[in-house]
Write a structure and sequence with these properties.
Elements lengths: L4 H9 L10 E4 L4 E3 L13 E4 L2 H6 L3 E2 L13 H4 L3 H10 L2 H14 L3 H12 L3 H19 L4 H7 L5 H12 L3 H7 L10 E7 L6 H10 L6 E4 L2 E8 L2 E10 L2 E8 L5 H12 L5 H8 L6 H6 L11 H10 L5 H15 L1 E2 L9 E2 L3 H4 L11 H15 L10 H9 L6 H12 L10 H10 L4 H8 L6 H9 L13
Parallel strand pairs: 2-4
Antiparallel strand pairs: 1-2, 1-3, 5-9, 6-7, 7-8, 8-9, 10-11
Helix pairs in contact: 4-5, 4-6, 4-7, 5-6, 7-9, 15-18, 15-20, 19-20
Protein name: DNA-3-methyladenine glycosylase II
Enzyme class: hydrolase
Pfam family, one: AlkA_N
Length: about 475
């Protein structure tokens, strides 16, 4: 979009927040870059230049605006709508892969050479993987500077910088302030401690929290997830340790409180929370298309901004999807809770009732199938999944949607419902669809959509947003997953 100069100018002049994250405005006279919705008086068009990423603007020598903080805007929805190389790379960079494994590790995960990855990412974003990861480290550093009382030396290492000098130079270059000056400018007192950080996760309006939080809480696994004091809380398995997050819907943002055993995990934890709540979606684009169907239009109008509740761990969700085959939500939670107690890693949660991390695939590899209170066929399905996960099946942020679907379909006991559920919730495919789901069948009958074949045919007009259409169809039923939990 950044190449359409006139459209970008109109968005900036209108201060249209819908375009935050789609592109960045660089002001040639001040050498500052902003988000489209920056509240200052827009510059003259002749003084504007547009970039596809904050990293590209930084590489061109522009500094982040101190007023609108463009580095903290919602991410581009493109990276969660697409399954090509660049989109997969961006999801992995956001998950911290470059910081932990380098560009070579990123390329290995994607199945391409380092040169191919660098060339394609630069061609679309105006910056390579290292520059994009550097921009992310700068934002992490700013968050830690403003929300904790950590000494700068510890903070630099936690943000992913190799030295205090690199940390100081990067912060000055990106924000035109020293780390100490950034801390002094922060409003109020730090809201976090050495292990707890409070963030505001922005999103594009509108947002309907009912199905989003209702689904997560109604299907939550005891000990791993809970609803407490108006917030959804859960444990997180992270690259350097574990964490606990509390997420609460607010106007224009999600209040996020993270307690981490290692602050180096802040970027990965933040990225996974955003994916969990689908916060980088473009709800206006989704609703506009779904609203063209006369049967969906009233549902969209009644609850604009529905998101797709996803997951923080693809392997975890796949295991839970198998446990939920042909049983009620309550039964699936019971099966999962038993696995957690038997094979999960215990943690301490002084602020609530969370007790475990969900078991890893490696931990489940040693389970005795005879201890599972489920049909023998489903035991075989679960063991086959665990074997595939330990053997390299990738259900993470950078997975190939088509290839992963094929791998899942080849496993015993994996039918369309299970595969599409995983595609929707774990892989994040916005076009995943479950026509065989009982909730969809009920909605089709209620709305007069016809039988399964008719629903599939009609759903072609909903593409590529069939996962969002599913959320609206499920909402036609009186089910707890469609309602916001009571505070």
């Amino acid at each position: 979009m950044h190449e359409d100069f006139e459209q970008c100018v109109r968005a900036v002049q209108a201060k249209d927040a819908r375009f935050d994250g789609w592109f960045y405005t660089a002001v040639l006279t001040t050498k500052i870059y902003c988000r489209p919705s920056c509240p200052v008086v827009p510059p003259k068009p002749k003084n504007m230049s547009f970039y596809p990423s904050a990293a590209a603007a930084q590489q061109a020598g522009f500094r982040a605006c101190k007023r609108c903080r463009p580095d903290a805007s919602p991410g581009s929805p493109l990276w969660n709508e697409r399954a090509d190389l660049v989109a997969r790379a961006m999801r992995l960079i956001a998950d911290g892969v470059v910081d932990t494994e380098g560009v070579s590790g990123l390329a290995d995960r994607l199945g391409y050479s380092v040169r191919q990855v660098q060339r394609q990412v630069f061609a679309e974003l105006g910056a390579g993987p290292l520059a994009l990861a550097r921009a992310q480290r700068a934002q992490t550093a700013r968050t830690l500077i403003e929300t904790t009382t950590l000494p700068m030396t510890e903070l630099a290492l936690a943000a992913g910088f190799g030295s205090i000098r690199t940390f100081n130079d990067t912060v000055r270059e990106v924000f035109a302030l020293s780390p100490t000056e950034l801390r002094q400018r922060a409003k109020g007192k730090p809201s976090g401690t050495a292990g707890a950080i409070v963030l505001r996760l922005p999103y594009r309006k509108p947002l309907c929290p009912d199905n989003l939080f209702g689904h997560l809480v109604a299907t939550g696994v005891p000990g791993v997830e809970e609803w407490r004091d108006g917030a959804y809380r859960r444990t997180l398995r992270l690259p350097h340790g574990h964490g606990v997050v509390a997420l609460r819907p607010e106007d224009g943002h999600i209040a996020c409180r993270l307690t981490l055993t290692d602050l180096r995990d802040l970027p990965a934890a933040t990225s996974r929370c955003r994916r969990l709540l689908d916060l980088d979606a473009d709800p206006v684009a989704v609703d506009d298309q779904l609203g063209t169907d006369p049967l969906l239009a009233p549902l969209v109008a009644a609850a604009p901004g529905r998101r797709v509740p996803r997951t923080v761990d693809g392997a975890e969700f796949a295991v839970r999807a198998v446990l939920g085959q042909q049983v009620s939500t309550a039964a699936a939670r019971t099966h999962a809770a038993r696995l957690v107690v038997a094979h999960g890693e215990p943690i301490e949660d002084p602020e609530g009732g969370l007790t475990h991390l969900f078991p890893s695939a490696e931990a489940l590899a040693s389970l005795d199938p005879e201890t599972l209170a489920m049909p023998r066929s489903r035991r075989r399905t679960l063991l086959a999944l665990v074997s595939a996960l330990t053997g390299g099946l990738d259900l993470g942020a950078g997975s190939d949607w088509a290839g992963t679907r094929a791998e899942l379909t080849a496993l015993p006991g994996f039918g369309p419902w299970t595969v599409e559920s995983i595609a929707m919730r774990a892989l994040g495919d916005p076009d995943a669809f479950l026509p065989t789901d009982l909730g969809i069948k009920y909605a089709a009958e209620t709305l007069g959509l016809g039988g399964q074949a008719a629903v599939v045919a009609r759903s072609a007009a909903w593409r590529p947003w069939r996962a969002y259409a599913t959320q609206h169809l499920w909402a036609t039923g009186d089910h707890a997953i469609n309602r916001m939990p009571a505070a």
